[in-house]
Design goal:
Blueprint (H helix, E strand, L loop, with lengths): L1 H19 L4 H8 L4 H10 L5 E6 L2 H17 L4 E6 L2 H7 L7 E4 L5 H11 L1 E7 L5 H9 L4 E6 L13 H7 L4 E4 L2 H9 L5 E3 L3 H11 L5 H7 L4 E7 L1 H12 L5 E6 L4 H10 L3 E3 H6 L9 E3 L6 H4 L5 E4 L12 H4 L5 E3 L7 H8 L3 E3 L3 H13 L1 H17 L3 H11 L6
């Protein structure tokens, strides 16, 4: 059952993407990015005679998660070239020219022939998958070629096929890994329940990454001017439901400042934000002429890449995604700056959100009224604010070190030569 469903999925996904690509830009990029992909990979790698480390990330978030490890691999094993692949256009398009890796490609869709051809061209000495995405033929090819295959910052839930009665096929994917580093004790216990013993808890490399970002922070004068010492809410990765929960508070508190970074920055979505936030200005307009925002209390961010630094300017951070969809976005990017974090009720898949609440550095709200009450409480109660802000930052700092654990394993097992 599991294998049949998987085979149908890998056959139908490209067809669906091609059809969606007629009117969906992301789907179109997914399809176009894979045209003549093997010719591109071969042309790029044929001139690079170095041994290769292959790192695969689903999308941009997983790249940020894996970046501390990529940097350490690059530094310690400098004679190797790092080949990075993405499944999603949002990852590839944003990082195709990044300075951390040597080659960046779309991952060809999983199939027996594609996996064999990919390994024939790349010939990796080590394969690293970040967090999740389990592509059977690629994993199997690494195993049969006896190439070390490591999962980093893995997270597992009981609802996944690996742990179901019909999950033999998916459990076989896990058996391809040389070693699995997971984020939590609960994830490790799930693996042990299906007799996967080559695993351990290393933590989440995202903690290392957000700490790096915070340490590398550089002032943003335009944002600093907009905030101008005012009480400020930075709302990151918001969806429509998030903005509908926040807009009344923003519209009725003209003396506060609100920086809203929508998850989707398409023109239609930006216009929606402008309609919801009645006293708003786009960042691109304000940065060009700050007088354009003279009557605005809300700055709408219309670019990608700033958010992880914007949280520094918040009094309180609001992280979007918690009122629907798959759940909240990265709460660690906000908490690392010693800021209280607020988000919607859908967060159960994210252990760090639960732990942040338990450590009193974050709060979940069920609706717009609770959100407004929470913001008022944090703004007005100085003792509460300072306690929660410190709790948020201390939680993040207490979790650093996952990258070092993975690197130690690679070194001790001699998976690579210096």
């Amino acid at each position: 059952m599991g294998k049949l469903a998987y085979l149908l999925f890998i056959q139908l996904y490209p067809v669906a993407a091609k059809l969606l690509g007629i009117f969906n830009r992301k789907a179109k990029l997914w399809v176009e990015g894979r045209k003549d992909i093997f010719e591109l990979i071969s042309a790029k790698l044929s001139a690079d005679k170095r041994k290769k480390i292959w790192v695969h990330c689903s999308s941009l978030g997983e790249f940020e998660q894996g970046l501390p490890l990529i940097e350490e691999l690059k530094q310690r094993y400098s004679t190797y070239a790092i080949v990075l692949t993405f499944f999603s256009p949002s990852g590839y398009e944003h990082e195709k020219n990044n300075r951390y890796t040597d080659h960046v490609f779309y991952m060809p869709m999983d199939s027996r022939a594609n996996a064999k051809q990919f390994f024939d061209i790349v010939q990796p000495s080590l394969v690293v998958f970040v967090k999740y995405e389990f592509w059977f033929y690629y994993l199997y090819e690494a195993k049969v070629r006896n190439i070390p295959l490591v999962l980093v910052s893995g997270i597992f839930r009981k609802s996944q096929p690996f742990f179901k009665w019909y999950g033999d096929f998916h459990r076989g994917m896990l058996q391809c890994f040389t070693y699995l580093f997971v984020q939590t004790d609960a994830a490790l216990a799930l693996l042990q329940s299906i007799h996967i013993s080559n695993a351990s808890v290393s933590g989440d490399t995202r903690f290392d990454r957000v700490l790096e970002i915070a340490e590398d922070f550089k002032a943003m004068p335009v944002i600093q001017t907009f905030c101008a010492g005012k009480k400020t809410v930075v709302a990151g990765s918001t969806w429509t439901d998030d903005d509908e929960a926040l807009d009344h508070y923003a519209n009725t508190h003209p003396d506060h400042r609100f920086i809203v970074a929508p998850h989707n920055i398409g023109e239609e979505r930006l216009k929606e934000c402008e309609a919801l936030y009645q006293q708003s200005v786009r960042y691109s307009v304000y940065a060009h002429d700050i007088t354009a925002g003279v009557n605005a209390n809300t700055l709408i961010i219309d670019n990608i890449g700033m958010l992880k630094y914007l949280y520094k300017y918040a009094t309180v951070c609001y992280v979007g995604g918690g009122f629907g969809g798959d759940g909240i976005h990265n709460v660690l990017e906000a908490a690392v700056y010693n800021k209280p974090v607020v988000f919607g009720p859908v967060y159960d898949k994210y252990f760090e959100a639960t732990e942040l609440i338990n450590n009193e550095g974050a709060f979940a709200v069920a609706n717009a009224l609770e959100l407004e009450e929470m913001l008022d409480e944090l703004f007005d109660d100085t003792d509460l604010y300072e306690y929660c802000a410190a709790a948020a930052g201390n939680y993040v700092r207490s979790k650093k070190g996952a990258t070092a654990g993975v690197m130690q394993y690679i070194y001790e097992k001699r998976l690579l030569t210096s």
